[in-house]
Each structure stands twice: as structure tokens, then as C-alpha cells.
Design brief:
415 residues, four-stranded antiparallel β-sheet
Length: 415
């Protein structure tokens, strides 16, 4: 082999090594991604994560962030827990479904896009509230009411999420990326229960008195409150299912007589609807029907027609507080219910944290009486066996999200 041939072979080897070294550096270097640092520091993932580089204080900082992954199965994990509460939000341009959730450890609110692999969670609110226990969402997820304990006092706070501020001189169609701060407003201390109106603009809440309970309505941030009614009953729950009507009910306890009432949102007139042992109930969005469960020697669920005062037994036995109404069809509700037998006092034990059973997700049509199983976590639909603590449905009824009791991980369901 002559010297010229050796020279060309040497150049070739150097070029190959240079290309291989460049490819190795490219594949192993962190990918710069523009994401909020607050979202990166949440510490929760969806079974996968990405190392990203962000700028903080003029320096590059590496962080591991949760990201979504796609799955062909009907049930899929969104993020690990613990999550206080979650809802589904749709954005119009483009049409996208987001899971919006509150982290239990710090009260931060995050969004993550469903069915879009590699999407990184984005911060919606960085307001820090450690140890949130409960949350209720305003219409379209534009705000949240959170409850938490502070020195044995139940605190309730409204957080209105910031909107993009209009760019000066650009008209209403264009917005800048500059965001206003979240709006934060505290409601009275020691609210025992609360419910949000269907349009998300008002809140109803209960305060205990020496002789029972007082019910109030107010704007969603707690301002302009007025006392709506008083009752000698102390252990009560309130919801606001229909625009002009509240549902008031006694807390469920097996073997204890309970009652459900309608309350006129304008006049405060209280009208009894149903009396039953161990009662728990929900109302539809027109307040034409009440779905309730009573507990005697066994548990049984019924649909109560408010106008005719007649009851019809259901073809299955859901716990109403583990049911939600469809956003598309007023007659359809979705329920989480055990597939196996549970004791009549299961709900009492469930609230006490001493009983748990895997749930399946059912749909039920109040008009036809037909029920069907939509998904069973931990089976062929995917996911893991789950006792469902709470769940929500998207505005177009294409997705459900649920929080698994225990670790409070967040899961999605394609309907």
C-alpha cells in the first residue's frame, strides 16, 4: 500500500469519527424547551419525563418535568398523584382538550394536553396553598374554589385564573403573552359545604349556627353575600344543579333517616322532596329528576320525578355522590360503582377510609332506564384497579378524568 493510499484512508477515518461524535453529542444533550419553571418543579409525572433547560436568574437550569404519552387503550394515566381536584377544559383555536388539575402539596394549578405525546404540563396558577383538601371548578375551568385546614379552621379561597392581556392598539382579536396575576379572594371561615351555580358566577355555602345552619349565596369570589335561608339541621350538604334551584340534603348515614330539599335561589323557599334512610342524592340540570339512594337492610337507588312525586328503581345501584351528569345529554349520567357486592353501609365505611372496592364506570339514561359499562380500570380497557374518588367529563363528552382514591393519581378515559 503506497503513502498516498494510506493518507486518504486516514482522512476517511477522521471524518467518520467526527460525524459519529457529533451525533452522539446531539442525541445525549438536553433539549431546550420553553416551559414555565413552576410546572417543571411540580415533581409529578405521567410515567415518563423529559429533561429540559430553562433560564432562571440568567442561568440555564436543568429540570425533569411530567409529559403526556399516548396510549391505544381506553384508560390512560395523566399524572401521578396526589391531585386535589381536576376538570377538563376545551380551547377553541385549535380545538384541544386539556386536563386542568390542582396539586395537593402546594395548590398549584396545571394544564396538560390529552392525547398529544410529549406535551409538557403548563402552569395556570402558582398561588401556593399547602395541603388543599377539596376543590370546585367554575364554569369552563376559569377558576377554582379550594378548601384547606389552617390551625383547625376551614379556609375557603377563590382563585380566578389570569387571562392574556390585549395588546395595545391591536383590537380584541389579538392578545399578548403578558398575563395578569391570579385573582385571590377568601370566603368566610368554617364553611361546612358549598356549591357553584351552573353559570359559574355564584356560590352557595353553609355556615353552622347555635341552632342549625344558615345558607348564603354570593358572587363566585364571596362578595355581595346574602343569607338565603335558615334551618334547624346542622349536618347538611348543598349543591347548585339548576340555574334557579339549589339541592339541600342531610349527610348520609346508614340506618339514619335523611331528607332532600329544593331551595329557590331567589326567595330561599325550602321545599321537602324525598325522605329515606341513609339518603344521598343528586339532581339533574333542569331539577326535574332526583337520583337518590336509600339504605335499609340493603342499598337501593331510584329516580324521583319532582313534578309527579313518583319513584322508579334503577337497573343498577350507583352511589349518587359518585355520579355526574353529561354535558351534552341532560338525561345521561356517568357513575363510578363497584362491580362486586359491597355491604349496605359501604358508603359510611368509604368516607371513614376503612373500606374500598374497585369501580367500573357506567352510563345511565334517565329517560330510557338503560345502563351500560363504559370502562373498567385494571381490565382490558387499561389502567389499574381503581376506587374512584371523584371524576369529571369534558364539554363534548369525549373524555372523562378520574382521581384514584389512595394515591390520588389522575387518569383519563376515552368515551
Amino acid at each position: 500500500m503506497n503513502i498516498q493510499t494510506i493518507f486518504y484512508w486516514g482522512i476517511g477515518v477522521v471524518v467518520v469519527l467526527a460525524i459519529a461524535g457529533g451525533a452522539w453529542v446531539f442525541m445525549t444533550s438536553p433539549t431546550p424547551t420553553n416551559v414555565p419553571l413552576s410546572a417543571q418543579n411540580s415533581g409529578f409525572g405521567a410515567g415518563d419525563s423529559r429533561t429540559v433547560v430553562v433560564t432562571q436568574g440568567g442561568e440555564n437550569v436543568s429540570a425533569t418535568v411530567p409529559l403526556t404519552t399516548t396510549s391505544s387503550q381506553k384508560i390512560f394515566k395523566i399524572i401521578d398523584g396526589p391531585v386535589t381536584t381536576a376538570t377538563l377544559v376545551q380551547t377553541p383555536h385549535p380545538t384541544t382538550t386539556l386536563a386542568r388539575y390542582v396539586l395537593q402539596e402546594n395548590g398549584h394549578v396545571l394544564d396538560i394536553v390529552l392525547d398529544n405525546a410529549g406535551t409538557v404540563a403548563k402552569a395556570v396558577s402558582n398561588t401556593t396553598i399547602p395541603g388543599t383538601a377539596r376543590g370546585l371548578w367554575t364554569e369552563k375551568g376559569g377558576g377554582v374554589l379550594l378548601q384547606y385546614l389552617e390551625d383547625s379552621i376551614t379556609k375557603s379561597v377563590y382563585i380566578g385564573f389570569p387571562l392574556a392581556a390585549p395588546t395595545a392598539g391591536s383590537g380584541q382579536a389579538t392578545t399578548s403573552t403578558k398575563q395578569q396575576p391570579s385573582r385571590i379572594q377568601f370566603l368566610p371561615n368554617n364553611i361546612t359545604d358549598l356549591g357553584i351555580s351552573p353559570d359559574g358566577k355564584q356560590v352557595a355555602y353553609l355556615l353552622k349556627t347555635a341552632v342549625g345552619s344558615d345558607g348564603y349565596t354570593a358572587k363566585i369570589d364571596g362578595s355581595a353575600s346574602k343569607k338565603l335561608f335558615s334551618t334547624p339541621l346542622a349536618e347538611l350538604l348543598v349543591s347548585w344543579p339548576a340555574p334557579q334551584t339549589l339541592l339541600l340534603q342531610t349527610k348520609s348515614a346508614a340506618g339514619v333517616s335523611g331528607a332532600a330539599f329544593s331551595v329557590n335561589a331567589a326567595s330561599g323557599a325550602v321545599v321537602p322532596l324525598v325522605y329515606a334512610s341513609g339518603l344521598t342524592a343528586i339532581a339533574d340540570s333542569t331539577f326535574a329528576r332526583i337520583v337518590y339512594q336509600k339504605i335499609t337492610s340493603e342499598a337501593a337507588s331510584f329516580v324521583h320525578d319532582v313534578k309527579t312525586n313518583k319513584d322508579r328503581p334503577l337497573s343498577f345501584n350507583p352511589i349518587p355522590e359518585k355520579c355526574i351528569l353529561s354535558k351534552v345529554q341532560a338525561s345521561v349520567m356517568y357513575c363510578a360503582a363497584p362491580l362486586s357486592y359491597v355491604a349496605p353501609d359501604y358508603l359510611d365505611q368509604w368516607h371513614q377510609g376503612i373500606a374500598s372496592a374497585p369501580d367500573a364506570i357506567f352510563s345511565f339514561d334517565l329517560n330510557t332506564g338503560r345502563s351500560s359499562i363504559l370502562a373498567a380500570p385494571g381490565g382490558g380497557d387499561g389502567g389499574v384497579s381503581s376506587d374512584i374518588a371523584e371524576f369529571a367529563v369534558s364539554p363534548d363528552d369525549r373524555y372523562l378524568v378520574f382521581i384514584k382514591k389512595g394515591d390520588r393519581s389522575l387518569w383519563g378515559v376515552r368515551l
